[in-house]
Amino acid sequence: MAQDEGDATQFEEDDHRAAFIFNPKADGDSAAQSTRPAKRRKVAKPDARKPQHTSAVEPVFPQLFNGAESAAASKLRKELFETAWPVLENRIQQVLREANRNTLDEVTSFLHEAAEAETGKITAGFIITGPSIASQDLLFEQLAERLSAASQPRFVRLRASEAPNLKAALKKIIQDATARASDGVDDVNAEVSQCGRKYLNYDLEALHAFLQQQQQQQQHRHRQHSRRVVVAFQDSEAFESALLTDLITLFHSWRDRIQFDVLFGIATSVELFEARLLKSTARQLYGAQFDVVQANSVLESVIKSAVAGTHATLRIGPSLLQSLAERQQDQVAGIHVFISSLKYAYMCQFYANPLSVLLAADSGGLDRTLLQPEHIEAVRTLDSFKAQVEAAFQARQLNHAQSLIEDDEYLVAQIMQQGQKRHEYLLGLLRALYLVTCTGLDTGSFTELYILALSSGIDIDQSSGTVPLEDAVKRLSPGEFLTLVDRLSGAIQTGSPELGLEGWESDAEEFVSSLADLRDEVEGLVERSKSNGTALKSKYSAQSKVLRTTIVSQKVQLSQDTATLTEEDKAFTNAIDTLLGLLSQNLHCDPMDNLFLHEVWVFDSKSPYRDVFIPRPGATFARALSRPHDYLACACCAKTNGGLASTLPTTAILYHLYLEAGALVNVADLWSAYYALVGEETDIGLDERSALVCFYRGLAELRMMGFVKQSRKKADHIAKLKWL
Amino acid sequence: MARRKAAAEAPVPRASRKREFPVDPYEVPDENETPKRRRRLEATSTVDEGTNGEDVADNDDDDAIPEPSPAKRRGRPPNPAAAGTLNGQATTPSTKRQRPVNETPVKLNGMDTPSRRNIADRSARKKSARALIDRVIGGTVSDDEVEEGDIAREIYESSEDEEEKADERGGVEGDQEPTTPSKSPGRKRGVAARKRSPTPPRDLPPHEQYFYQNKPGLAKTSNNNLSSLNLLTHDEYFSVLRQLENPHASDVDFLQSLHAESFPQWAFELSHGFTTCLYGYGSKRRLLHSFATYLYSQNPAHKIVIINGYVRTLTTRDILSTLSAALPSLSSPGTGGGGSSSNSVGINHSNTLQALVSSLSTSTPPTTLTVLINSLDAPPLRKPATQTLLSQLASHPQIRLAATADTPDFALLWDAGLRAAFNFLFHDCTTFAPFAPCELEVVDEVHELLGRKTRRVGGKEGVAFVLRSLPENARALFRLLVGEVLAAMEEGQHAGEEVAVEYRMVYNKAVEEFICSSEIAFRTLLKE
């Protein structure tokens, strides 16, 4: 209690300070000394002492099951998270770096070549980055790294918001160019006041002098150093064209002293960009255009390696993944948004799902002692548990079903086995997926395929399957047949590094050998039919159907006829049938819902993600103000049900009145309406002045939240600003 | 069909051809002419005369010359057609209003297929129009042709006029503003339509409601004003406020305690490089403060800086200097140089930021700085530069940022790049706690809203402004005086009298502190 009071008084002071260092102990102690020292210390000390043991560690995970979870279990969850996520993050970073590598290489080599070729113009690289500003950042960061590593030019990144005019732009360029190279702050100062002269901070002479000085220093160390400065305009569309023109002209005039190279990040097209420049300016540029890997393909590869790949501990469920991917499309969000969402999903799962400890069973970190009765209880509430029991019951394995329900130890044993089963399932899924993509017969993207496979499994049956490949396989020509078989066996041999799949030849010997047999057979058939001078075909291919036209008494009759198939053709048809059989056997997997305990390793809840990343503040405010009961759960407003009632908080009442009003609100009328609701004659019975105070407060809050503004149209009127 | 033919037959300039199309000829000719229509037509002919002939000039009124050019007329909506239906069919208002919009382009191209009756009725008018046109083009006009032309024009104009009348309900406006006739019919029609539906439609979607409520002329409010009401003064506001009690206080506290349960979660999110943003109605100042207390109790070694965005005098310099003061490695040289706030005169923000960031990255053991910002969307922090600065801070791995937002539109503060740098997680933290008195100065706000100039003379800022304008000695004297008065107040609290300071004593003190040297100087300073 005492501490609360102390805090409350301290509040008042702190609240009016603009910025301060939070230190409750110092303030609290002084307060305590002045008031009630003995009592306060009692309360404060345990608070202050306890955390000091844990001061080094990050916040611990809470103990779930209403606190019944053991500390060890919550610690294990934390460890699991801390091992699972960094692996993934590394992979993602790797993928992102890979994705931009080509562009980076091209740009670097272009700048090199241009530096050697004496064009008399400013070298300009136009990098088509696409619309997302956020992803540009990464690219330019990498560029800066790469360029400064390669040839040590100064690299300056400019954003339109940082350089509103020529002076600011030059200042920024000089500052960055001089500061980046020198490690300490001292060098910067030395540069400015070198030779006893002080340059204005937007004078390129300063940069020139600095570069010369650098060069001299470098020459002592016998290292070639160029006087080059690369200026990157990250969001070139946002720069004023006049500013760009001025800068380029200025750079051009300094060419003999400082070699400027410019890079433009362009979201639209080079043509549009060029149209904004003066012709004379454009003539001073010697440029080339570079394309960045499109966001879609980056996303695809991130999904492949981080979401679908074998490295992922946690699976993102199909519906969540679907909405994530859609968001990337719809909102032109950068790839980092996706990564954040992914991370958040991991955080949610390990932070709030007590069963996530079961994931430790893989690495053998799961102890029987760790599993509390609560865990087992929780497992029994899962949908997949019910499904499992029902399935056992259907299959007449009554004992199994019974022990699942009643015998804890039996269940634990089952749970322990699930790790292995999950592993097998995922491997099977990924292999099947990979093979499907390898056939090249399915046109969907990998992401779509993956989502489909998770939600409804893979089945290549034409009529009922999720990935109807049957027809496509049947229509194969012998050549295509052979390449398909080659591709499949190649895929099995090599695996997919992107997905983290290794070759699984040893696991699928039968499949591989039958593929080889098929290949031999078909090759033989092709040889033979070639020597016969006929083209090999199957009964499924379109050419086998012959349309016959006969004219009988001036009427045309159409009839379809199966062309006669040679022996080879029949054999080829058989081969196709065999291949189809093999494929449907191997390219098959169940939806993940079928697995017992999939809730442990699949995170498929959309709501925390949506709430946290895509807030709807408008709706939240509207709800809070129109139905305060939803939040306050107070007895007095329970009956209002979104309507207007005098018991609501003032601002809520005013909000209701506000909604009813037109574009222009008469404050006098608003006040009388409000007073009629809460005034002396009503249940609330506020006297006029108190009501007015409340009214003032509500009105001020409405204004602060941007609902109303002053209107000059009429005296004592305010204008409505929001139509929600 | 008939129209297309007309277009093909009459090789006329475009302006005049258009004149022909939009008109409806099946009106009973009327002798009343609207001057506007007539002038329009005459303008056409005068323009044509300029190229083709001069004889016609005799027939035209002189006032035809300063009329609008043909180019202007081309864009005018051919409203006569609408009126035609009005006359023909017994007025269904909705169709009447829609038609002109739909028909405009079609008619110009001559692609319209008018109803049979229309075609039949059109001929008289068309003939007259063609006669007029031919005459203009031909250029050679005899006297009877002139007469004929007059008749033709009469037919032409009268029918047009008829429609005009039907359209404008009397056509009064045509006389009043002849130069911009196109606008007036539209407005008129709008008024008529509105009269038909006096009750506002219910349950409109927000955007519809916007357009409905912003229709010109709709904003009808009573003429009541607050003159009868005695507006609150600051003193009264605060004294009444103290007696008021919030019936929802316990619920608000409960809500807050609910939010407080998520503290560990927020701390976890912060520790993983996310920035939490708490939004929702109600002041989150106390919530954030107790969050700070929680964080502190978790790990007292962490530095926590609280920034109150709603403080109107907040500058980026304040933020940066407080941040660097929080860092042990930076604060020690800072204090040596005369305090971090005073030495920042010539220091660039970006330099300070860089120093801050580099000292954070290099510090051993790694210190973590937690920055809590109240009202991230308050006016002092709304500048893009400030937001960029904050986002740079937030993207640093060792700075954790948690912020609150008070307005519903806070998301508009950031573009994709900033948002990526912030790496926001949003939490709905509706607290229902009152914003006043910290975030909001209620009385000032309301008076400003009402356009009353009863703003407290600047309050704190005002005093600061006045003091800044004074010479240094005067300022020192003021400080001295205030100090003395305060001391006297404390001593004389029990007496309950007005406090006073002895003149002589103040003077002596002033001399001691070298504020002034003579009594005259002292008096002048005191006057200031």
TrEMBL record, chain A:
Biased composition (Acidic residues): 1-13
Record-level Gene Ontology MF annotations: DNA replication origin binding
Family membership: Belongs to the ORC3 family.
Coiled coil spans: 501-528
Keyword list, A-Z: Coiled coil, DNA replication, DNA-binding, Nucleus
Any one cellular-component term (Gene Ontology): nuclear origin of replication recognition complex
Residue ranges of every copy of the Origin recognition complex subunit 3 N-terminal domain listed in the record: 40-358
InterPro entries on file: ORC3, ORC3_N, ORC_WH_C
Protein name: Origin recognition complex subunit 3 N-terminus-domain-containing protein
GO biological process, one term: DNA replication initiation
Region described as Disordered: spans on this chain: 1-57
Subcellular location(s) of the protein: Nucleus
Pfam families for the chain: ORC3_N (PF07034), WHD_ORC (PF18137)
Origin recognition complex subunit 3 winged helix C-terminal domain location: 621-681, 687-723
From TrEMBL, chain B:
Ribonucleoprotein listed as a keyword: no
A GO term from the CC aspect: nuclear origin of replication recognition complex
Molecular function GO terms recorded: DNA replication origin binding
Keyword Nuclease found: no
Basic residues: bias regions: 185-197
Domain Origin recognition complex subunit 2 winged-helix: 495-528
Acidic residues compositional bias, start-end: 51-65
Annotated keywords: DNA replication, Nucleus
Residue stretches of biased makeup (Basic and acidic residues): 114-123
Location of this chain's protein in the cell: Nucleus
Region called Disordered, residue ranges: 1-210
Chief location bin: nucleus
Residue ranges with Polar residues bias: 86-95
Record-annotated Origin recognition complex subunit 2 RecA-like domain positions: 252-429
GO biological process, any: DNA replication
Sequence similarity: Belongs to the ORC2 family.
Family matches, as PANTHER family: ORIGIN RECOGNITION COMPLEX SUBUNIT 2 (PTHR14052:SF0)
Assembly notes: Component of the origin recognition complex (ORC).
Its job: Component of the origin recognition complex (ORC) that binds origins of replication. DNA-binding is ATP-dependent. ORC is required to assemble the pre-replication complex necessary to initiate DNA replication.
Record's protein name: Origin recognition complex subunit 2
Organism from which the protein derives: Chaetomium strumarium
